[in-house]
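Please discuss these two lines.
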Amino acid sequence: MAKITYEKDKDYSALIQQAADAGDYTSAANYEQQRNAKIAGEGLNYDTTSDYAGYLDKTDYSDILREQMASGATADAVQNTLDRRTAKAQGTVGMDQYANDAVYQAASQYIKDNKAPVYSSKYSDTIDALYNQIMGMNYPDWQNGSEYKALADKYAANGRTAMQDTLGQVSARTGGLASSYAASAGNQAYNDYMTKLQDAAQSMYQNDLSDQYKKLDMLEALDSSDYAKYQDLLSQYNTGRSYSQSAYQYNKSSETDAANTAYSQNEAKAQTLAAAGDFSGYKDLYGLTDAQVAGMESAYKKDDQEALAKLYAQYGIYDKYVQLLGGSAEDASKLNGLYAAANAVTSSGGSSGSSGSSGRSRSSGSRSSGSSSGSSSGGSDTSTMASDIAAYVATGGNADTYLKLHYKEYGFTSLSTAKAAYADYNLTQTNDTYNAAASNYRSVLVACQNMQSAGSSKSEILAAIKDAWKSGVLNQVDYMTLTNKFRG
């Protein structure tokens, strides 16, 4: 992120207010950043703010939400995007109306209707507690419990009763006289009951343990049943999402096919009209201005094939350019590189250059004096500018960046004029020899061939080519060439 600069004596609070009052919230956001930088850099005793920061976030969360909902995205994914959109709306002056608008309502309802089922066991706590209880059970500890005590008391009472009964019976036979035999018989009767106590206690303990295991089995069976129901719901949910996504992809593919068909039809119509001198069909097809269309029609009416060919080349319509000059389709393909370089659409060196780069082989200052055969206006030095751009690009810089930074130094009053002069100069200097300047045509061609080998459909490949064109990776001619190649 570039360092934010500020001026010590500038009243950024006033500038923020002025911009906001004028409805220029982006400028207000930039002034706010500079104010914050000034506060931090100068150690001022003011609070920093972010009232307008949302205007620097160019993400269209509404479009993202619509795309997600149309494609069957998960509720969590939609919720994440909605949260970011809401935070931006609530935290930015002038955006609060988006915090609860129709998009918010639609997304909220989608989230509610598309929540993935969640499994939460009703029995897990009870199962865990019972399992721990079973694992902690043992007979010695059980003997210290209330169940064993009650059982022991019962058998002891019964044993004492048996002992008394035995003593009475023996005494009756001996005429009521006590004897050691009577005492021994009574104790034996008591001990018999106490022996039975141990058998009964062991049986009771095992029964208790068995009952606990049965409870555990029952709870686990109930839990498994609930989990199976959850799995059914999850399967239905995933099937629904898969259907939504398939339908979305089908619709998108149909839209792409329809757009490609319409483009082909419009292209054929435009070429038919152009053959008769009516170039209006190229206006919308290639994004030409009325003045550009008028120039092509004027050249046609004058039957000036060379001038018309030059216009075709200037606007990137190389198939017509080489046709008028008697060239081949291969010629048109090679000229794609020239078009890319002349208009600084792409550069093999990337965008590493900056205003302070060492790629400039000249000193700073205006180049307003003198002119060359490649100059497009009096006082502008196109030839020197082209030479300096070539040196800059050779060091890894970007031609477009160089033009934006230095066009005034060569006597041009606008960037568009400088670009036009640079393009015209390059076309003139070729002398019908093809320029090997950088173009993304080859890389996109290889990518499309790889897609084709991987089994991608024709509509998917054409959509990828169109995306490359829209994003500026391909120029107009490369786009048309690749589209015709893979349309079949």
